[in-house]
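quick q for whoever's on today - can somebody do inverse folding on this one?? i tried earlier but teh output was garbage lol. tokens:
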């Protein structure tokens, strides 16, 4: 009996490929085209309106000579490192606790995930009130009789970024918990039984068996956290507007201020290009681990 010839690879699922053409075209024109446009104009002295008057690396030299930009990078580094570590640790611990089949698991899961449903502006305003020295935690504790208690991170230049970090963790940790919980639920029950039979302590089971098996979940989580760190803006605007002074500036706010307040498009484009570079630094290793590593394997 003659075998039916299969269509060439190019023509398989043709209707799905045709349906994807508008999305691909939009991505190429809007995202890729916009990215190239931004990079090109970062080498110009565009002010209120873009113009092709090239000035070489002048915008980048001015960018890296700006104290405001350097403070923004320092804040992003502190916020990023702590957010990355604490989000993973807290999210995994909460997921491990919920994975014990506790009572009211759905209720706890909803409570932990609820902050993620709020916008960053709402979260920032809520935590601005909570951390207010007169009406927030400090005011409540002092009203209870502890007059010397001080907790006003948003009003101290040295620790203001940690007040923003608290709000960021409160909102984002629930999502990380859900991703981790999905990964834990994907672990075969026989592995847990074998570990118990062999007498392996629970912490060693997690550290040497479970976590390595959850590598794809961790990589995806890292990319999500890292992308959120690079573009952090709403929380800062809602909580401090970059203050006290410029103590809580971040790169995204620097770009916004340069483009819309200072009307210096060239400087804003230069800052945007540096942010794009930081995103690529995250995405390229992830792409290699996800695709290149599998090929070599």
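ok took a stab at it. sequence:
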């Amino acid at each position: 009996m003659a075998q039916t010839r299969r269509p060439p690879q190019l023509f398989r699922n043709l209707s799905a490929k045709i349906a994807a053409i508008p999305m691909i075209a939009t991505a190429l024109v809007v995202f890729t085209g916009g990215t190239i446009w931004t990079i090109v104009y970062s080498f110009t002295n565009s002010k209120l309106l873009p113009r092709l008057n090239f000035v070489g690396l002048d915008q980048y030299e001015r960018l890296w000579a700006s104290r405001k930009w350097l403070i923004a990078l320092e804040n992003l580094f502190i916020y990023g490192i702590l957010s990355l570590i604490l989000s993973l640790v807290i999210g995994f611990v909460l997921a491990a606790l919920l994975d014990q089949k506790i009572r009211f698991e759905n209720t706890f899961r909803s409570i932990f995930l609820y902050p993620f449903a709020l916008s960053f502006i709402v979260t920032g305003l809520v935590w601005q009130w909570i951390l207010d020295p007169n009406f927030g935690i400090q005011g409540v504790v002092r009203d209870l009789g502890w007059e010397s208690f001080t907790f006003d991170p948003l009003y101290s230049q040295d620790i203001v970024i940690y007040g923003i970090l608290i709000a960021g963790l409160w909102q984002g940790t629930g999502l990380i918990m859900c991703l981790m919980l999905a990964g834990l639920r994907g672990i075969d029950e026989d592995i847990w039984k074998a570990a118990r039979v062999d007498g392996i302590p629970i912490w060693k089971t997690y550290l040497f068996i479970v976590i390595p098996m959850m590598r794809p979940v961790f990589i995806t989580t890292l990319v999500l956290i890292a992308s959120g760190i690079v573009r952090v803006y709403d929380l800062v605007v809602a909580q401090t507007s970059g203050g006290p002074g410029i103590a809580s500036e971040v790169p995204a706010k620097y770009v916004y201020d340069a483009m819309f307040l200072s009307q210096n498009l060239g400087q804003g484009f230069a800052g945007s290009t540096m942010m794009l570079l930081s995103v690529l630094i995250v995405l390229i290793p992830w792409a290699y681990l996800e695709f290149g590593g599998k090929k070599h394997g």
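fwiw The chain has 13 helices and no strands. also The domain at 62-296 is CATH 1.10.3720.10 (MetI-like fold). so keep that in mind when u check it
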